[in-house]
Design a protein that fits this description.
With 171 residues, this protein is α/β, with parallel strands linked by helices. It is built from 5 helices and 7 strands, in the order αβββαβαβαββα.
Length: 171
């Protein structure tokens, strides 16, 4: 029993150093836009309004379901709150060519970038996709969610509205 507790404590300490915490800033890494041009994540701004950063991949069905569900209401969300969604594909060089085709086929009206080397994914400690972050107008991460179930987009939008109103978020 003592070994299990000791091992659990070690795992917790090791993992806590690799987790993204509320209030952390968006790390600066280089990504590619859909035309292949390099873009720094330091340029991700939204005039003091919230940003949703959604990590996804072309092979991830739950990721596409989440982004499709958000797409259905995105223009309303933007009108009501000014929120911006930035979709980050973690497809590597072998599959990143599918990203442009998927985005066009889906008709997503988001900023989409490709993290071929997965530097941004690692910097934000994303272990699997979909993984969604909510960033306040100061560029601080205030909420994150991993996985997707139908209706999660509603909770996300409720959190966006809370951020706009200066309310504290629950995880």
């Amino acid at each position: 029993m003592k070994r299990i507790l000791a091992l659990s404590a070690i795992v917790f300490v090791l993992c806590s150093g690799f987790m993204t915490a509320d209030g952390d800033k968006i790390p600066t890494v280089t990504l590619k836009d859909l035309n292949g041009a390099k873009v720094s994540s330091a340029t991700f701004t939204n005039n003091g309004k919230p940003i949703i950063i959604s990590f996804w991949a072309t092979w991830c069905k739950p990721c596409k379901k989440e982004l499709d569900a958000i797409a259905e209401n995105y223009s309303d969300w933007q009108k009501e709150t000014g929120v911006k969604l930035i979709a980050i594909s973690i497809d590597d060089a072998r599959s990143s060519g599918k990203v442009v085709a998927d985005v066009k086929a889906k008709g997503w009206d988001y900023e989409v970038y490709i993290d071929e080397n997965q530097d941004f994914k690692r910097a934000l400690n994303v272990m699997n996709v979909p993984h969604t972050f909510l960033v306040n107008g100061k560029g601080e991460i205030v909420w994150s969610h991993n996985s997707y179930s139908e209706g999660d987009e509603d909770k996300l939008f409720e959190n966006v509205k809370k951020v706009i109103n200066g309310e504290k978020l629950e995880h």
